[in-house]
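[recover] target loaded
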């Protein structure tokens, strides 16, 4: 019971702060109260395209995230094992990190149709995170174990399985958790600008255009809840899957 209470009390506290702030501003157009927001949410979830919009956005988030993981792991492993590959990939990672997300979104709007822009942006923003953490994991590999592998002439494949992977797993999980949070933000930001049919970002944009602030808050609340649920479920799955490496 104490654990549940410890989770509920902070929520109640911030709901009260929200309610007080809305009363002080006293204008739903600028800052709707929790009651008005949840009323808008109760209407929103029964709209015909609600589930379709949520499904499309979630799908885009995970397609981009999965692609980023695949390429991030592959190029991270290659970069960690081969210094020449690291020198080739590293400038590309620096460019991605240095360029504003909005620039990539605008460029992607020229290259792709609107429904694919969020996927590309999710991939592009998450790939450097996965790659960096994999490379960082290589730097933390126990050098004494590597020396033993050389002495006993252990093959590269076995070194990867028995030495590198146990060292990389904690770094990978940390990178994945960070990438998961980033993917939600950049995917929805890309949807707001690319305006694909039936998407959370598109609905956010429409709410802003029509000055429907309660619905804007309701969609934001949905984004937070979805992000939190998926983060908890996936993190728990990965921790259970790889807990032997910790």
């Amino acid at each position: 019971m104490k654990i549940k209470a410890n989770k509920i009390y902070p929520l109640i506290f911030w709901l009260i702060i929200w309610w007080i702030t809305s009363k002080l501003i006293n204008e739903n157009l600028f800052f709707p109260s929790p009651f008005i927001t949840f009323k808008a949410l109760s209407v929103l979830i029964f709209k015909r395209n609600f589930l379709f919009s949520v499904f499309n956005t979630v799908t885009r988030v995970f397609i981009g995230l999965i692609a980023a993981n695949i390429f991030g792991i592959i190029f991270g492993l290659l970069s960690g094992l081969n210094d020449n590959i690291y020198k080739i990939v590293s400038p590309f990672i620096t460019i991605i990190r240095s360029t504003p997300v909005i620039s990539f979104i605008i460029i992607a709007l020229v290259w792709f149709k609107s429904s694919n822009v969020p996927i590309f942006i999710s991939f592009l923003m998450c790939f450097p995170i996965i790659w960096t953490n994999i490379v960082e994991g290589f730097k933390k590999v126990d050098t004494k174990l590597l020396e033993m592998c050389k002495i006993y002439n252990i093959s590269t494949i076995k070194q990867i399985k028995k030495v590198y992977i146990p060292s990389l797993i904690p770094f990978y999980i940390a990178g994945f958790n960070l990438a998961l949070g980033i993917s939600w933000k950049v995917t929805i930001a890309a949807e707001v600008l690319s305006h694909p049919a039936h998407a959370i970002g598109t609905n956010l944009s429409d709410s802003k255009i029509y000055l429907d602030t309660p619905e804007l808050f309701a969609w934001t609340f949905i984004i937070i809840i979805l992000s939190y649920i998926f983060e908890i479920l996936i993190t728990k799955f990965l921790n259970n899957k790889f807990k032997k490496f910790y």
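[recover] notes: The mean pLDDT is 81.
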